From TrEMBL:
<dbReference type="InterPro" id="IPR029000">
    <property type="entry name" value="Cyclophilin-like_dom_sf"/>
</dbReference>
<dbReference type="Pfam" id="PF02626">
    <property type="entry name" value="CT_A_B"/>
</dbReference>
<feature type="domain" description="Carboxyltransferase">
    <location>
        <begin position="29"/>
        <end position="287"/>
    </location>
</feature>
<keyword id="KW-0067">ATP-binding</keyword>
<keyword id="KW-0547">Nucleotide-binding</keyword>
<protein>
    <submittedName>
        <fullName>Allophanate hydrolase</fullName>
    </submittedName>
</protein>
<dbReference type="InterPro" id="IPR052708">
    <property type="entry name" value="PxpC"/>
</dbReference>
<dbReference type="GO" id="GO:0016787">
    <property type="term" value="F:hydrolase activity"/>
</dbReference>
<keyword id="KW-0378">Hydrolase</keyword>
<dbReference type="InterPro" id="IPR003778">
    <property type="entry name" value="CT_A_B"/>
</dbReference>
């Protein structure tokens, strides 16, 4: 007899809820962004807590979500500190939680941070696209955004749930910057200007890029009015359009760009970009 397929029923979702894993790097030459979770440490922790392999897909929640597993399962919520409940009763954040069959699990708006990560034992087992289950919001490669009425398949549990880590609070400090390839396009050292700030996260920020409002970076007189040929972009690139207001490229960034890159955010600090919201301050330091 064929075993029943394990399913996670989505009752409601607000904001932007997507399926994410480590993404699909290696396809930039085909014009496909890498995608993947924005807060990697939080997503990996959620998987460890429920006994999943590191590569298991999770739900990235920017907003709220309510789900109901068809059978009993273990879950964990990490990242932004969000109220979590099962069958209307508050349960632990950042720890393995058992959800009985048919009980409703809710992840509500976070008290601190921006994005939460919901891992289910066995992982979200939607069909991979180019080797990944991640949703790319720039070209919408991969699974569709998660909305009420969706039924998400769950894989077989790989291990036992364990409280292995102390949850990391999404405390954002100064992001380390590495020199960019186009520093000569700016009037003075652009790292000095970026470190001086101050910077405020713009409301137009998303999974493609973190847009910052603050003192405009000025171009060197030799490059005023000039255009740069499109070139490859990397995760964490700090691109500066003619407005002078920097944009930090995140997981769904385009694979090429025509504005000069003044700096690159250190890979170990990129997770912090996932946990700052519109109107919040962001600082940089030399890395």
């Amino acid at each position: 007899m064929t075993p029943a397929v394990r399913v996670l029923e989505v009752l409601a979702a607000t904001g932007l809820v997507t399926v994410q894993d480590a993404g699909r790097p290696g396809f930039a030459h085909l014009g496909v962004p890498r995608a993947g979770w924005l807060d990697e440490p939080a997503a990996l922790l959620a998987n460890r807590l429920v006994g999943n392999e590191a590569s298991a897909a999770v739900l990235e929640v920017l907003g709220t979500v309510a789900v109901r597993p068809a059978g009993p399962t273990w879950v964990a919520v990490t990242g932004a500190c969000s109220p979590v409940s099962v069958a209307g009763r508050a349960v632990a954040f950042g720890e393995p939680v058992h959800v009985p069959a048919g009980a409703v699990l809710r992840v509500d708006l976070p008290m601190t941070g921006v994005r939460s990560y919901l891992a289910v034992a066995g992982g979200i087992a939607v069909e991979p696209v180019l080797g990944s289950r991640a949703t790319d919001t720039l070209a919408w490669v991969g699974p569709a955004r998660v909305e009420g009425g969706a039924r998400l398949p769950i894989g077989a549990a790989a291990g036992e749930p364990q409280a292995l880590d102390t949850p990391r609070a999404p405390m954002v400090s100064a992001l380390r910057l590495l020199p960019g390839p186009r520093a000569d396009w700016f009037d003075g050292d652009p790292l000095d200007a970026l470190v001086a700030g101050p910077w405020t996260v713009d409301a137009d920020s998303n999974r493609v890029g973190l847009r910052l409002d603050g003192p405009a970076l000025r171009r060197h007189p030799a490059y005023v009015g000039r255009e740069l040929a499109s070139e490859g972009m990397v995760l964490g690139a700090v691109q500066v359009p003619p407005s002078g207001k920097p944009v930090v490229f995140l997981a769904d960034h385009p694979v090429t760009g025509g504005y000069p890159v003044a700096a690159v955010v250190h890979p170990d600090d990129l997770w912090m970009c996932a946990q700052v919201g519109p109107g919040e301050r962001l600082r940089f330091r030399r890395g």
